[in-house]
Amino acid sequence: MLRISNLVKSYGSDKPVLKNLDLTVEGGLVSVIGASGAGKSTLLRCINRLVQPTSGTIELNGVDMTALKGRELRAARRRIGMVFQGFNLVDRLTVMENVQSGRLGYISTWRAALRKYPKADIRRAFDLMERVGIAHYANKRADELSGGERQRVGVVRALMQEPEILLADEPTASLDPKTSEQIMELLRSLSRELSLPVMINIHNVHEAKAYTDRIVGMRFGRIIFDDKPEALDKPAMDEIYAGVPAQERGDSSHAAPAVGSAAMHTS
Amino acid sequence: MTTARDTWHKPPFIANPVIRYTVWAAILVYFGWAIGTLPFDWGRAAEGLERAQRIFSGAFPPNFDRHELLIEGFLESLQIAIISTAGGVLLSIPIALMAARNLAPLPVYWFGRGLIIVARSFHPVIVAIIFVKAVGFGPLAGILTLIVYTIGFVAKMLAERIEEIDEGQVEAMRAAGANYPQTLIYAVFPQIMPRQIGLSIYQLDSNLRASAVVGIVGAGGIGSTLANAFGRYDYDFALAIMLVIIGAILISEAVSGQIRKRIW
Lengths: 267, 264
Hints:
The complex is a heterodimer of chains A (267) and B (264). With 267 residues, chain A is an alpha/beta fold. Chain A is 39% helix and 20% strand. In chain A, the strands form two sheets. Chain A has a six-stranded mixed sheet with strand order 6-7-8-3-9-10, sandwiched between helices. In chain A, strands 2-1-4-5 form a four-stranded antiparallel sheet, with helices on one face. Chain A is globular and about 50 Å long. The two termini of chain A are 32 Å apart. In chain B, helix 8 (180-216) packs antiparallel against helix 10 (235-262) and helix 9 (222-231) runs antiparallel to helix 10. The radius of gyration of chain B is 26 Å and the shape is flat.
């Protein structure tokens, strides 16, 4: 169970990006929606400490992530899988090496350097790749794959960590609509099979409603909606996507273009 | 109503006419002064032409009789170039990692940059003179010189490449709980590998050239052979050596160009 309480993140002396945010995720698929600049990405990155929270606590199954350093932090990150918008695969390495990079937190540096992966890891990799349909690409270079296939590699890499929660930051934003639905479908079925809690930042509200169990709506660093997908009606949508994030942060210079982008993401 | 305008002049580079003409005048005055005060001895230059004539006529036809000496010198140059490239490239990798702003903390960054700046400050000939004084005549001085030369170029270019890497791949490794060396091996090295290979081949080519030059000040190799030939007025042998150097550089340039074209 993930329990975030009173989380604040501010960059320098600017107004905070996350304002006293509370959120508990017990299981299932949770989608986080909100206009660009609402703080979705920062929230996700605070959980595995790619971004350093300013204050507040983030507890994953009893361990407070915010207090960890060095070796302990790396050990805690292994328990949190992450899938990225741009896939973030290592293009020049093979699919197998990319998948095994999810185990880096578990294996020694020399094993990693010589690609002497433990047998159990290789078995696990083939099982997972088989499950998502990319096992035949094991020896291909990651940049030879199509977008949908690349994101499958990204998902398998995250699952190799044997995570207790999966974070997905706009996992479908770089994909065409059909592939995008396939990836959402995959995330949903994997979440069910492995009873793995999944938190997905997503711009596509239609997909959020169709594939996830719970929708969290963010606006200007706060959660203003948290309910079942059916409860997300027109007024709630308007509330989440209304206004100009930059203006609310007191930065009027970015106000004009933000209106256009906020309108676009509600589509 | 105004008449149609059909003339246009590009605005001058320096808009203010006073500054513009002052700059021009200053340039003319400087060149007049510089050429007027440097000690050109036209009489000696005329004699030199005669001497050049003697050297060139003495050089033809090139004399390959002492080809054993030539081959020996050339092989030594090749050894110097290969060993110094390997050593220099190996040292360049950690220095480049230190000198990349996106990976190194600020003090380490300045240290890495400092090493590169020092390595780049002096022409190899000056570095060679220092090393010849320090370790004596011969190939060791040449190798040390070219290692410094290699670091100056390869570490600088590699550091710039490291600063351009896709940070997303690094982020993904960190998110998986990888430590610093693992992140380097999985997310950084694969991205810089093609540039690394290209730079190494270019540098081998470049070191072969430079090894001939530093040899002249006593750092071994075919440069030393060439300097000796000049010293003994063996102009025909010197020409033979120069032809071999030109041939070797043409070949290495062609080969390195082909290899660099094929990796990406």
